[in-house]
Amino acid sequence: MIRAVILAALALAAAPALGQTWPTRSVTLIVPFAAGGGTDAFARPLAQQLDTQIGTRVLVENRAGAGGTAGAAAAAKAAPDGYTFFVGGTHHAIAPAIYPKLSYDIGKDFVPVAMISRPPHVVVTSPKNPAKTLADLIAAAKANPDGMTYASAGVGTTHHLAGELFKILTGTKIRHVPYRGAGPAMQDVMASQVDMAFDGLGSSAGQIQGGTVNGLAVAAPARIPAVPNVPTAAEAGVQGYEVATWYAVFAPKGTPPAIVERMTREIRAALATPFIKEAWERAGSDVPTLEGAAFGDYVHAEIGRWGKVVAEAGVKVE
Predict the structure, then answer these.
(1) Would you say the CATH fold of 121-218 matches that of 23-118+246-313?
(2) For residues 91 and 18, what is the distance between their CA atoms, to the nearest angstrom?
(3) Do the beta carbons of residue 112 and residue 292 sit within 8 Å?
(4) For every one of its 318 residues, what pLDDT tens digit does the chain have, with 9 covering 90 and above?
(5) Does a cis peptide bond (omega within 30 degrees of 0) precede residue 96?
(6) Domain boundaries, the chain
(7) What pTM, to 2 d.p., does this model score?
(8) Does domain 23-118+246-313 have CATH number 3.40.250.10?
């Protein structure tokens, strides 16, 4: 009994020290989508900033597939030693309603660390598309039911459900074309291989600013400084169309609390730097402050919210 008490006391004493000495080698952030997508657009600047703060390399590993669930499954199986973290997002709150047999549980197999960004979505088309306003796009879609297409980062992603919600609100029929990530999807939008996308500003703000895609409306309550000339969906005639994708860092369940707390502090510090603030503003995102247990409660609420949207839209894995 005495020995057990002594060992427990030693473990408690060692916990803070563990957080102080970590890391002693490179840290990996698993991004469950292809390079160039919205998750990547926030994970890479964050990794770059953390590099300078924690004194070792922070590497981004892209593991795309199955609407972001393949990378999540790999992260859930990673050793909980503080050297692998997972950059998840809204997609993973949607996934339980889309994939009934997931090999992981986002609420049970991960420890929430901190939300890192929350950019709204935007309706984008190729500059070659004859529709130059949202009203033009809706009129064209109604005149040609099922004849137009929209690209997404995969079945069950926010990009997909943003498109389904748009169809519900506008009474249009537009065919869904899923891709393995937002990057490849946007490439085909720019090439006019698909008519449109309901993309996150994290990956599309730069494209809009550069003129490689047209932004027709942001799914937000107010215009976004990064793309001030793009009207809100309400201004463009579609009331109630508001969609944002949040991105966040999670740790595999069992990761030492001291390391999770240290990473939370490091992310908080990173988000407060001019480098990150400026990058997030360019991408049309705010700088969220949700961390730890409060963020875990938010994820739980999101699972319920998106489950209802999936049911109403009748979304299924094909």
Answers:
(1) yes
(2) 32
(3) yes
(4) 555 444 444 444 444 566 678 999 999 999 998 888 888 989 999 999 999 999 899 999 999 988 789 999 999 999 999 999 999 999 899 999 988 889 999 999 999 999 999 999 999 999 999 999 999 999 999 999 999 999 998 888 889 999 999 999 999 999 999 998 888 999 999 999 999 999 988 888 999 999 999 999 999 999 999 999 999 999 999 999 999 889 999 999 999 999 999 999 999 999 999 999 999 998 889 899 999 899 999 999 999 988 988 988 888 876
(5) no
(6) 23-118+246-313, 121-218
(7) 0.80
(8) no
Distance of CA 76 to the CA centre of its chain: 17
Report the top-level CATH class of 121-218. Answer: alpha beta
Positions of E strands within the chain: 27-31, 58-62, 84-89, 110-117, 121-125, 149-152, 175-178, 196-200, 214-218, 247-252
Residue 133, helix vs strand vs coil: coil
- Here the tokens at position 159 are 């990009």
